[in-house]
Amino acid sequence: MPSLLRQVAVTAVLGLSLLTAGFIQSPARAQDRQARTMLVIDSSVAMQSALGNETKMEATKNALAVILQRYEGKLDLGIAAFGHRKAKACEDVSVLSPPRPMAAAALAKQIAPLRPTGSSPLALAVREATAALGPDAGPARLILVAGGIDTCNADPCAAAREAKAEQKVRIDVVALRGPGGEDLKALRCIAKLSGGTYFEVANAAKLSAALNKAFRKSVLPKNGAAGTADTDEEAMTADASAGSYAGVDASGVDQDGGGDSEDPAGLVMQSAVTALPEDAPAAQPAADGKISIRFAALLADPGPQIDTGLVWRIYDRKAGDDGLNRLVAKSEDAAPRVALPPGDYMVNVSFGKAYATRSVRIEPGRPSRELFVLNAGGLRLLAKSADGADIPSGAVVSEIYSDEQDQAGNRTLIVSGVKLGVILRLNAGIYHVKSLYGDANGLVQGDISIEAGRLTDMTLTHDAASVTLKLVTQRGGEAVADTQWRIYTQDGALVRESVGALPTHILAPGRYNVEAIRGGQKYADSFEVEPGTPRTVEVVLPQE
User: Fold this and answer.
1) Shortest CA distance to 342 belongs to which of 294, 284, 295?
2) In terms of C-beta density within 10 A (0-12 exposed, 13-18 middle, 19 or more buried), how is residue 19 classed?
3) pLDDT (tens digit, 9 = 90+) per residue, 434-488?
């Protein structure tokens, strides 16, 4: 009788003071100046469809609740919404707030009442939001969150072109693709024609990552330019997937080392933030014709270079006669320099259970450095009983699964035997956690979102309680030895078998039937388990 996950404590962001112990996040620098930005939120019926376990609207609100706090004080932000007031109205666009110094709580209050209701006047929303920036807005940005295309027979591409030409406004588009596989290609032109970035996301974790990147582009660096020219290819990295090669399975788990260390104090990744050069010299062949390439990996973009715990594998891109890609080099150095003949290779870098895989072409004249962004975060599981007391680490064992399910409802196991307090290194994304307290049915489960560059603490509240069984000749008497026990649910499902005078099991709340078997005779009784309340169950032998 598994119960649902009741409490999740998330996103404990480790700052510079904890640099050697874990993750750091630097979405904006202290010397950055404020930029003018309009956030445009689709509130049409398109936002009623699902994005993972939530509607697109719910997922957007939840993601923005975190993002707005993260960027408070970093830019002037206004909010516009469309499709939220009337069922069918192609003029339904509202500027909820003009650009002003960001107050996260106030903006979140404006977003909270939005309900997906009507049509999608997307082109009009772009024009109204651009106008709200003011005539002297440029350079500035719009961040458009959209769950579908324009349904009002207007041309949002033309609106984007006008925004760019008249007010130098770039538009970053975050397109939400639901389970129906909506065709959102019509939204690409909005980003492309305005010089912005197009993100297409299919779950809450990728939505958060895309919004974070879009907000980061709105923060003005010292030179005052609100972001730089972006490409679709750069933005679409969130949807990239890794292949399977000899020595690395499809989940990217390191098969011969490089796993997570059991360090409850933190994840020791780097001794310092390493500043990587912006430009690497062009690669040149040595006398033997090989080219020396330096490899390095970042935790997130932006983020620190990872200085320990990495495993690099380099494979020939061309498969051999046996169909496998030959491993040509392997290194556990954080930033290895590898000499390779010119050609095409597949490079995999793993960091615990986080990994990245991509193709690399090595030839004269190309940069002599290859930088990988892992988009990795950390997950640490904690557990409490129903009364709020901490559960000892050895009493709970958990498993981490993928969020996706196959047609039979099965998930891919990512990590098994996870102990409490151990930090797991995982790629950013949504995961399903199953946590078993004890040796019976004290199971809780739920989903958790891991963000790149952030440590997430997940606190599991277990309602299960310990139950001790006794076969006695009279109430309060001594337990009879050599007794076999069977515990059943009310519908007859076997929960646990054991042998002994005083066996103790952790059971989920509910009613149970119990059988005590001794000398070929069965003695039955029933009992109830209350949340978090230990108890002793006595089965009394009948008097002869």
Assistant:
1) 284
2) middle
3) 999 998 999 999 889 888 888 899 999 999 999 999 999 999 999 999 899 999 9
Token output for 369: 């450095």
User: Under a CB-based contact definition with an 8 Å cutoff, are residues 80 and 40 in contact?
Assistant: yes
DSSP per position, 424-451: EEEESEEEEEEEEETTTTEEEEEEEEE-
Q: What is the pLDDT of residues 287-304, one digit of tens each?
A: 888 999 999 998 887 777
Residue 347 falls in which region: left (phi positive, over 0), alpha (psi -120 to 50) or beta: beta
The runs of H, that is alpha helices, within 103-236 are 104-111, 122-132, 156-167, 188-194, 204-218, 232-235
pTM over 0.90: no
How does 310-323 read in b/e, with b if 16+ C-beta sit within 10 Å? bbbbbbbbeeeeee
Q: Left, alpha or beta for 500 (phi > 0: left; psi -120 to 50: alpha)?
A: left
Asked if 211 and 174 touch (Cβ cutoff 8 Å), the reply is: yes
Which 3 state secondary structure label does DSSP give 61?
helix
Q: Which three-class secondary structure state does DSSP give residue 189? A: helix
Beta bridge partners of 361: 344
Question: 322-338, pLDDT tens digit by residue?
Answer: 777 889 999 999 899 99
Per-residue exposure over 168-193, b if at least 16 CB sit within 10 Å of its own CB, e if not = ebbbbbbbbbbeeebebebbbbbbbb
Residue 160 and residue 127: Cα distance in Å, rounded? 8
Q: Which of 133, 127, 112 is nearest to 43 (CA)?
A: 112
Q: Are strands 343-351 and 310-316 parallel, antiparallel or unpaired?
A: antiparallel
DSSP secondary structure letters along 318-385: S--TTSPPPEEEEE-SSS-EEEE-SEEEEEEEEETTEEEEEEEEE-TTSBSEEEEE--EEEEEEEEEE
192: its two tokens: 């492309």
Residues 6 or more apart whose Cβ sits within 8 Å of residue 544: none
